[in-house]
Amino acid sequence: MAPSSSPLVRRIARRILADIAAGLLPPGARLKGAELALRHDVSRSPIERALLLLEQAGVAAREPNRGFVVTGDRAASLRAAQSLMETDAAPPYLQIAADRLAGRLPEFVTERLLAGRYRVTGAVLRQNLTRMAQERWIERRPGYGWRFLPVLDSAEAHAASYRFRLAIEPAALLEPGYRVDATAFAKVRGEQMELVQPRPPRLTSNEWFDIGTRFHATIVGCCGNPFFIEASQRANRLRRLIVYRPFDDTRAFAAAAHEHLKLLDLLEAGRHEQAARLLRVHLEDIRQVKADLLGSEARPASGDRRRKSGDRRGELDVVPHF
Amino acid sequence: MAPSSSPLVRRIARRILADIAAGLLPPGARLKGAELALRHDVSRSPIERALLLLEQAGVAAREPNRGFVVTGDRAASLRAAQSLMETDAAPPYLQIAADRLAGRLPEFVTERLLAGRYRVTGAVLRQNLTRMAQERWIERRPGYGWRFLPVLDSAEAHAASYRFRLAIEPAALLEPGYRVDATAFAKVRGEQMELVQPRPPRLTSNEWFDIGTRFHATIVGCCGNPFFIEASQRANRLRRLIVYRPFDDTRAFAAAAHEHLKLLDLLEAGRHEQAARLLRVHLEDIRQVKADLLGSEARPASGDRRRKSGDRRGELDVVPHF
DNA sequence: GTTTGCATTTTAGAAGCTTAAAATGCAAAC
DNA sequence: GTTTGCATTTTAAGCTTCTAAAATGCAAAC
C-alpha cells in the first residue's frame, strides 16, 4: 500500500512493530526520532518514513508538532506485520538454483543471459553469483561467463557435510567462551517440545529441515568463536539446497527431538563435555539413518562416478528446497 | 614491456611458461592455439596474445603460417617468468587492512572515501569490501557506509582460530576420500627440509608464517572434502592479517619442521589415525608456545575486556602482515 | 583435414550522469 | 533544552554509453 518504501524503511518498520508487540513501546508512548535512530543505527530520515508507514497502517498516530505516538491497536499491528512481511522479494539466488536443478539452465551461462532472464541489475546479479560461487555451485570461467559445477553429487556431498559437522559442532560446545543465550534456547526448546507431543504435528520435510537446522545453529551460535559459527552456517546453507526423497519417519523425528531436548538441558546445566559427547552420537545417528536410506554401502569411493541408470535402489529425488 | 596485456593473458603466459619449464613443451614443440585453448579453458584469443608476449620475451618464436614454436632458451624463460610475476598489482584489500590497523582510517567510512583514497573503481572496491565483510573485518551499515569492526582483539581471535584448527585439521586427515597429492607433498617437504638443516636459513616471521601455512593447507587440501578445505582456508586467511611480536625462536621452528616432516611420512604411508593424533599434539604445542609468549594465563574469559594499559607483559605488537 | 591468421561478434567492466534514499543541519514549536 | 518538521547535502545504486578484451567464424595455408 505504501506509495514507495525502501527495504531499509520496511525493515525498520518491522522492528518497531516488534518492539510494540513486545511491550517495549506501550500504547500512548511517543516515538522519538533521535531515540529510534540511535536504536536502529540509522539516521532520522528512514525512521520518519517508517513511522509514516506505521501511521498509514494505523499502528502509530501523528500529532502535529509532537511527532508519532503508539495507538495500541492490536488488529492494526497484526495487519501491518502481515503486509510488511509480504513486501520482501525473493532473491534471484534461489530461483537460479531451482532452475539449474530442474535443468532449465545450461552448464555455461553469461551474466547477460542471467540478468535478462531474472530481470535483475548487474550489481545484484553479481552479489548472487558471488554467493553461489562461495557455496561452490558455480564458478567463474577464466575468460568470461560462468560454469555450473556438477551439482553436489548429492549422496557424497551430503555425507561430506555430515562429517564436517561432526568435526565442528561438538567442538563448538566445548569452547571456553560458551554462553547460553536463554531467549534463543527457549525458542528452540518450544519447537522441539512440539515434536515430542503424543500427537506430533505433520511436518513437511522442509519444515523438519528448518527446525532441525535452527536447533543446531542455535546451540553452535552460543560458542562465542566466530570461526565455528561461520563454518556451521556455511555447511547448513549448502545442505539446505538439496533435499532427499521425503524422509517421513515420525518415530525418527521424535527420537531426534528427544536428543535435542536433552542437549538443551545439558548445556543449560553447564555440562558441556557430556553435551558434546551426546551431540557426536546424535549426528552419527542421523548420518546413519540417512546413509541407510540412500543405500550408501553401494556408494562408489570417488564422488564423480555415477550409478548405472538401471539401478534405482538408493536413487535420489533431488528437489530444490525452499 | 608488453604494450598491453590483461591479467588473464599474463596468467596464461605464466602457465605456458611453467609447462615449458616442466618439460611438457620441449624446445621445438609447436604451440597449437586450439590445443592450448582447451588446456587452459579459454578461447584462442587470449592464447594468441599470451604467445605474442612469450615471443617478445624470446621464449617462443613465430613461424609464418605455422604459428609459434618453443625456442628452448632457458635464460629467456627465467627473465620472462620474473617480469610476469612483477606485473601483478596488489589488491587494495591489503592496503586498507594495513591502514586500518595503523589507525589511518576511521571507524566509519564511505565507499566514496575509499574509492578516492585507493584509486579504485566502484566494482573493484565492492569486491574487496565484500571479502573483508566475509572475514569479519568490516560490516555494512544499515543506511550506507561501512563500519570497521573492533579489530580481532588479537590474543583472543588468535586463540579462537587455533581452537578451530584443532577441531578441523586432524579430522580432515581422517576423511575417507583422503588422497596424497605427491607433487604438492614433495614441494612442502622440500621447504620443511630446509628448516631442519644444521644451519637453517634466517627467516622473517612472514616467511615462517607462509611456509607453515602452506604446509597445513597442503595436508588439509588432500582430504577431498570441500567443507574442510574451505574452512581451513578461511581460518588461515584471517590469521594472516595479524602477526604477533616477531617470534624468532629457531629451536621452535626446527622442532615444528621435524613434526611436519613426520606428518608427511605418516600420510604418505597411509597412517592417517596416527597422523591425526600427531597433528593434534602439534597444534596444541604451537598454541601453547604462543600462549606462553602472550602470557595468556592472565587472559580474561570474555573476549571484549581489555588488559589494563599499565600491564605490558604479554602486550602485542599488532603489525600488518604482508 | 588441421591449423593459422585475421575479421567479426559478444561480453563485461569502466566512466559519466541521473536519481532514490539516507544523513545532516537548522529554525520553529513545545 | 528537547524534539519536530522540513530543507539541504551526501551517498550509492541504476542507467546509458563506450571500450578493452574474450569468444567465434571463416578463408587461406599447409
Give a description of the structure.
2 copies of one chain form a homodimer. With 322 residues, chain A is mainly alpha-helical. Chain A has 3 domains: 7-86, Orthogonal Bundle (Arc Repressor Mutant, subunit A); 92-148, Arc Repressor Mutant, subunit A; 154-298, GntR ligand-binding domain-like (Four Helix Bundle (Hemerythrin (Met), subunit A)), CATH 1.20.120. In chain A, 58% of the residues lie in helices and 6% in strands. Chain A has 13 helices and 6 strands. Chain A has helices at residues 7-21, 33-40, 44-56, 74-86, 92-101, 111-118, 122-134, 154-173, 182-195, 205-221, 226-239, 250-268, 272-294, and strands at 30-31, 60-63, 67-70, 108-109, 138-140, 146-148. In chain A, the strands form 2 sheets. Chain A has a 3-stranded antiparallel beta sheet with strand order 1-3-2. In chain A, strands 4-6-5 form a 3-stranded antiparallel beta sheet. Chain A is globular. The two termini of chain A are 27 Å apart. The model of chain A is unreliable at 296-322 (pLDDT under 50). Chains A and B meet through helix 7, helix 8 and helix 11 of A and helix 1, helix 7, helix 8 and helix 11 of B. Chain A binds a DNA duplex (30 and 30 nucleotides) through helix 3 and helix 7.
Structure at a glance:
The first copy, chain A, has 322 residues and is mostly helical. The first copy, chain A, is 58% helix and 6% strand.
Estimated radius of gyration of chain A: 24 Å
What class, by secondary structure content of chain A? mainly alpha
Terminus-to-terminus distance of chain A: 27 Å
Number of helices of chain A: 13
Detail the poorly predicted runs of chain A: 296-322
